[in-house]
Design goal:
Blueprint (H helix, E strand, L loop, with lengths): L1 H9 L2 E2 L2 E2 H23 L5 E9 L15 H17 L9 E6 L4 E8 L2 H40 L7 H12 L22 H22 L8 H24 L11 E5 L12 H26 L1 H10 L1 H16 L8 H20 L7 H23 L1 H4 L1 H6 L6 H30 L2 H5 L13 H25 L2 H16 L6 H4 L1 H10 L1 H13 L17 H26 L2 H4 L1
Antiparallel strand pairs: 1-2, 3-5, 3-6, 4-5
């Protein structure tokens, strides 16, 4: 009775729209503002400054062989960022970052962001110097390989070292202190450090400097005190320092980034006149516009498809949906001693398996890797479980479909809601793992912090709703498809496994980078969703020894995934509705 009264009130016209449509429109605008406002209003004040770097395209031709996308050049930029991250806590966040813009003829612009004008200018200058150093180091590693190759020839002849640097080269070979892209091989022509040009000596010294910095700032902090790995890294660092000391003392191979040369900082940064414009009013207005567009689109679809009527019909069967969801949970844990505790233990054990594999057999350098893993595993499990059970939802309930009238959408929705409830029940274990791992993570303790969780956790319901919309659309499609093509049920398990490896659950797309990562994000909504979960719960992906910083996902990325999820839901539901009348005959 009350429901009919509300429906009548919602259908009363007020101007061009009905009362219910006005409420829907206002809800869309308010929802868009609630999602966008935290991101927009929390934009930090930041300053940007730029410096210039010039690299010789003839001397460092290997860096420019494939243009701006050359993998060797990308490796130099990545090594520069790793060096800066090791020296600047919090590097990689919106208020402390640097990006490289490639120009013509070996010219690069380094744009750095800082929390103050002085910090931005300082970081831009340091980033420019670091890029020049790393470019020289890339060339220096090949020079070092040739020097080691000749020293290997001398050693194989049984000749003792005649100079201090020869002894240092043998120490570098013996300790494998400097990993190279290619193995050391004997060379036919004599190569001595004293015969190198000034530029070659500089490159050689920069290669050793880069290795020494990585050992002391990145690799050593990530190893356990007293372990064999730490002892090897300590010995390697000492060997590299001794070789560097010789180059500094005997050959004056120190680096002046502003001096004329084949790799140099060609222009220093100037103080920015003011902070970067945040465009708060314009962004909030844009969010309001997006809410209006979504609301009006929803009204148009409802008038043509009768969505409200369909939702009202499903609401009348809410008790059936509730009973089916509870039945699924009871069946899932029936007969087990631990019962619903498996909602906590299952993701924990799965995370431990992956952590063991990637810690022992395929070591990962990602900071707080167990947290990185479980934050990606739980949403993926929700998706995989919903797809596998949802695809069979209509087939497994064939007798019910043929004997009882009810909206057929109830069955796939039950599978999605059952998996969603299982996901929500497993969230306490997620936060327990985060608390334990972060409590045992030395860099957090050194920073005087207990956890790196922030207010961005509040975006979790938004991400769960977004994923549920997307998963429901896929499940509608698969449930209908499986009724007509039973082989689809067997193929879905294989496709889910394939999809798992295309989704950055156990790895980071940032490690792939470039166009490939962008294509994966655009074509695989789950890749973007996993990244969103990591952004709000884990933070930016950083190397061991560093602290990730959580943030709010980009509004443009959220909007893209929202539109994709809605499109998938509409397409999946349309296909399900078109075929649902034939389910009884096919079953």
């Amino acid at each position: 009775m009350m429901s009919a009264r509300y429906m009548a009130l919602a259908g009363r016209p007020f101007g061009p729209l009905r009362a219910g449509e006005w409420l829907w429109l206002m809800g869309c605008v308010v929802g868009a503002l609630l999602i966008a406002a935290p991101r927009v209003l929390s934009q930090p004040v930041r300053y940007e400054a730029s410096a210039q770097v010039a690299l010789s395209t003839s001397r460092y031709a290997e860096l420019f062989a494939d243009g701006p996308q050359d993998p060797d050049l990308a490796a130099v930029v990545l090594q520069s960022r790793e060096s800066l991250a090791a020296r600047y806590p919090g590097f990689g966040t919106p208020t402390l970052d640097a990006r490289v813009i490639a120009g013509q003829s070996g010219q690069f612009t380094i744009v750095a962001a800082g929390r103050s004008a002085a910090e931005a200018a300082l970081l831009a200058d340091d980033a420019a110097e670091t890029l020049a150093r790393q470019a020289r180091a890339a060339g220096g590693r090949e020079i070092l390989r040739n020097l080691m190759g000749w020293e290997l020839v001398v050693a194989l002849r049984g000749s003792p070292p005649t100079t201090t640097f020869q002894a240092r080269l043998r120490d570098l070979i013996r300790t494998s202190a400097v990993p190279l892209n290619r193995p050391i091989e004997p060379v036919s022509a004599q190569v001595r450090v004293d015969d190198l040009t000034t530029e070659e000596r500089s490159d050689l010294a920069r290669a050793l400097e880069a290795r020494e910095e990585r050992l002391t700032r990145i690799e050593l902090p990530a190893t356990v005190a007293g372990s064999a790995e730490r002892r090897r890294a300590t010995a390697a660092a000492l060997t590299v320092r001794q070789a560097l000391a010789y180059l500094y003392r005997e050959l004056d191979a120190r680096f002046d980034p502003d001096a004329a040369g084949d790799a140099r900082r060609s222009a220093r940064a100037s103080l920015p006149p003011g902070p970067v414009e945040r465009h708060i009013a314009a962004l909030l207005l844009l969010a309001t516009g997006v809410g209006l567009v979504v609301g009006l689109a929803g009204i148009a679809v409802e008038r043509s498809a009768g969505i409200v009527r369909k939702i009202g019909e499903l609401w009348q069967y809410r008790e059936l949906i509730q009973n089916l969801v509870l039945r699924d949970l009871r069946v899932r844990y029936r007969g087990s001693a631990l019962g619903y505790l498996w909602t906590q233990l299952s993701p924990l054990l799965l995370m431990l398996v992956f952590w063991l594999v990637f810690a022992v057999f395929l070591p990962s350098n990602i900071a707080m890797y167990p947290v990185f893993l479980i934050v990606g595993l739980l949403p993926w499990n929700f998706c995989a479980e919903a797809l596998v059970s949802g695809a069979r939802s209509v087939i497994d309930n064939g007798p019910l479909v043929k004997k009882v009238f009810f909206p057929r959408e109830v069955l796939p929705l039950t599978a999605v809601l059952s998996s969603l409830l299982n996901f929500i029940l497993s969230l306490p274990m997620l936060f327990i793992v985060i608390a334990i791992v972060q409590a045992l993570y030395p860099p957090l303790q050194q920073a005087g912090r207990i956890t790196n969780l922030s207010w961005t956790v509040g975006y979790l319901p938004v991400l769960i709703a977004l994923q549920t919309i997307f998963v429901a659309g896929v499940v509608f499609l698969l449930a209908a498809l499986a009724v007509f093509f039973r082989d689809a049920v067997h193929l879905i398990g294989i496709m889910v496994q394939f999809w798992f490896f295309l989704t950055p659950v156990v790895y980071s797309l940032d490690a792939i980078g470039g166009t490939t990562a962008q294509v994966v994000r655009w074509l695989n909504p789950m890749a973007s969703l996993i990244d969103f979960y990591r952004e709000v719960l884990y933070g930016n992906v950083v190397s061991s020894g560093q602290v990730p910083s959580p943030a709010v996902p980009g509004l443009d990325s959220l909007a893209r995934v929202f539109v994709t999820a809605l499109a998938v839901l509409v397409a999946g539901y349309w296909f399900f509705q078109r075929r649902s009348a034939e389910f009884g005959e096919r079953l």
